[in-house]
């Protein structure tokens, strides 16, 4: 990893050009600068100001054990959602200056553009962008029920233990299509017990067998995969991960082995989720459902509106086909999209004319 550092870009009006897959022409997006957020008086000092740039012999906040580490992917297609998610994390945190963001971007992406976009909205954010060589995982990806799920960056969460420096021992992974309405420190404090590698809300009422094909369940060997586990569905868009345990157990290799088998015989249909279920389901630490009110983007086909699950809410997650920014732009929002809108930093957008 390159020398750890903080990014402090000058305050500029910044415009990003985004070409959405579903759009006929590229779109220029300009985002507002978010307010700066400060720690409450009882927050611990994570890094002294004269040490925060990663000077020799002194770790920056990006390597601090006292920091709260958050990992997300970063790309132009979801940048609007990512910025909203960052804002929601900071706004509801009691110690926002103690949060370190670790962004993973495709190695072929314009990293300078992505960094500048984040910094223009959050000039004082502690973050680093890690390049992800998506060619390494592309050979393992099988087509799924929705093309968006086949993007190699969706699989980056399986490689966090390799991408992030070894000084980062524990991380909260978040998807880009969500907002928090509670202090992320509560989620980060989840106890993993003596053996669990990760924690996430489990949904044991879901039809677990539906996540795998009849070929999987009819195979005498494969069908025994969950024999000694109480396997339940969990959504991989919100996870607390012990990276040390992940590295020690070489779980990236375990996930890749299932992906290699999927290339030989089709055992699932749903992108990057099933390998996680195969490796971890039944062995994760539970998290209260309030921390992933998922499915607000509807199903993977039509993206129809959905209601919240019953119970309290700390995190709203628009997993599924429908994204709140797209539905708001199309003037066809679902009622719950209004809960995402206050975190939208979009200043304006305009289609760009293509040269004839």
TrEMBL record:
The keyword Signal applies. Residues 1-23 form the signal peptide. Its EC number is 2.4.1.-. It comes from the Eukaryota. It is found in: Membrane. Keywords: Glycosyltransferase, Signal, Signal-anchor, Transferase, Transmembrane. Its main location: membrane. It is a single-pass type II membrane protein. The keyword Cell membrane does not apply. Belongs to the glycosyltransferase 8 family. This is Hexosyltransferase. It comes from Hibiscus sabdariffa (roselle).
